[in-house]
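For reproducibility, we list the full input for the alpha-D-ribofuranose complex.
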Amino acid sequence: MRITRRQFVTSYTAALAVTGLRKHRLRDSPSSSPSRVIIDTDPGVDDALALLLAMRSPELKIEGVTAVAGNVPLELTLPNALRMIEIAGRTDIPVAPGASGPLVRRLVTATYAHGENGLGGAVFPEPQTKPVAQPAAEFMRDRLRKYPGEVTLITIGPLTNIASAFNMDHELPHLARGLMMMGGSLSGGNITPAAEFNVYVDPEAARVVFQSGIPITMVGLDVTRRTTLTEEHVRTLAAAENPVSQAAAKIARNALQHAREQGFLVGPNMHDSLAVATFIDPSLVACKDYYIDVETAGELTAGETLGYSPNAGDLRRTPEKEKEAASKLTIRGSAPTLASTRTSPVIRDQYAPNAQVAFGVDSRRFFDLLIARLSGHG
Ligand code: RIB
Ligand code: CA
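The corresponding predicted structure, in tokenized form, follows.
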């Protein structure tokens, strides 16, 4: 029997009340050794650089890479992911094939931004490495169950694989250490005025993730728009003599050229690398607590992430007054139509944050980290 949305969120709130407000912050890793991660990706120009950054970062123990359709179809995102692990000399990392399309929508790609091959036109040899046979959702389930409380999901594409895993095994959100997401925006979209691309492609999957109870850090356009690649970055990468920096320079140079041809005055944003970098060094961003929900019904706004907070609009309050405001904050939806049976637009009775949303970023320190790691000097 399908439960209504209101019933679902009410039971979610009740569960929170019973178990204590689940910390929506990443759960503390049990040890200071490299942190276990699974990277879910749709490479993708910025995904490719993010994967190379991750593979150059000793803080990460990459349990696996899972490919999803997004920027380009899965037939390209999967081999592009395999290309990156070969370039980095990391064919020890398993790559699993994921969803070839969203849960309930047709796939919308971003070849306009990432080129027909997904790497901005930069050409690399066909990968010799094969993906694992296990589908991405099952791969995630098995690793999350093998290492309870230790694995962080770093998602830099549409959330279809994650939602599929959570729908298959409802305990997974509570077995993960947390989820670091490049996605969403509280300051307008990049594929429509309302929606950021990753959430736009599969809004239903994004809603499953935000309502799952997994601790989420949302690195959205609010901060990634301030990470613009420059010619100087490309020169630095090209000057370093190693396969990773040379591949990164090639991809970055093509991306800058593509941006110029489209008449942009600045280079592309390093959306996905910022999510990986934030996992490596959380001090790169400043975050605020929000209850995030996802529009899925809008004809114009599907994929919009809405942030509810007692401090909306940056109105600062004393801690006591903030707590009081939070207790009174209702999650209000659209006004009911005359035909609607709902008596009130209130969707849930009590505010409970489900994500830390990044709103400030130290762009210079971010690029220092990214370029140093990709060059092999950091
Ligand atoms: O909106 C930016 C996101 O969409 C990035 O992950 C980029 O790779 C595209 O997938
Ligand atoms: Ca991506």
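Residues 316-348 form one domain. The pocket of calcium ion (ligand 2) is lined by residues 42, 44, 46-47, 70-71, 156-157, 272 (CB under 6 Å). Both points were considered when choosing residues for closer inspection.
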